[in-house]
Write the structure tokens for this entry.
Amino acid sequence: MQETLTTPENQDGAADMSRHNEELGRKYSNAKGAVGDLAGEVGSTVKDRAGAMQTQAAEWAKEKANRLKEQAADSQAAIISTVRRHPLQSLAIAAGAGLLLGLLLHRGD
């Protein structure tokens, strides 16, 4: 076997290598911490944006539902007004629609 001689140059090289390894360890720890911090910030940003989008979608849906309710109320008011102005025609139309529906349903039997 070959013996390793300990010389001042070898000791200096080993000390340099040890300092270099320690510095790499510190840099690794710092980088690991920075990545963790960044991941936390990204997660928080995503959560905030998702919450804002959810709120926006809920407001949009509520607005559309209110608009549909208004349209339904307007349609109902128009139908009631028409039936009151033309009661006999309305009755005849309803009777015809009922007769037609009855024929169609009976035909399927």
